Amino acid sequence: MPELSPKIVGLMSTKLDDGLGMFEFLIGSNEEVLLSYKSVRDRLIVTNKKLLIIDVQGVTGRKKEYMVLPYSKLTGFSCESAGTFDMDAELKVWASAINQVEFQFLKGTDIRPLAKVLNEQFCG
Question: Cα separation of 14 and 30, whole Å?
Fold first, then answer.
């Protein structure tokens, strides 16, 4: 089986309950949504237990792929702030069973809260 390397582009911060109906069934009773990002179609939901990636597919957007990455399966991450010529900030996470997942954030999106959550998960 080939390694997956999903890339989610154009993310920006959104309210924690934005689109909740789309992913609420994957949030456990003792789980809390900490951060939420969305692009035109896709989403990244950050909880106290996992990263949840929602890839909206097809013309109508009715088909969705949900990728759940528990923190216990993550092996590392890197973040890159936006620069003068490169307007998007980027964050990459590596996990067992997949190579990496890359997230690109729109200019002006502060990824430091996300990096802080990941750092706390990795380093306590």
Answer: 22
* pLDDT tens digit sequence for 5-41: 678 999 999 999 999 999 999 999 999 999 999 999 9
- Burial group, residue 108, by CB count within 10 angstroms (0-12, 13-18, 19+): exposed
Which of 17, 16, 50 is CA-nearest to residue 31? Answer: 50
Q: What is the number of residues in the chain?
A: 124
Instruction: Tell me the C-alpha distance between 59 and 49, whole Å.
Output: 32
Hey, how many other C-beta atoms are within 10 angstroms of the C-beta on 106? 16
Burial 2-13 (b: 16+ CB within 10 A, else e): eeeeeebebbeb
Do the Cβ atoms of 115 and 77 come closer than 8 Å?
A: yes
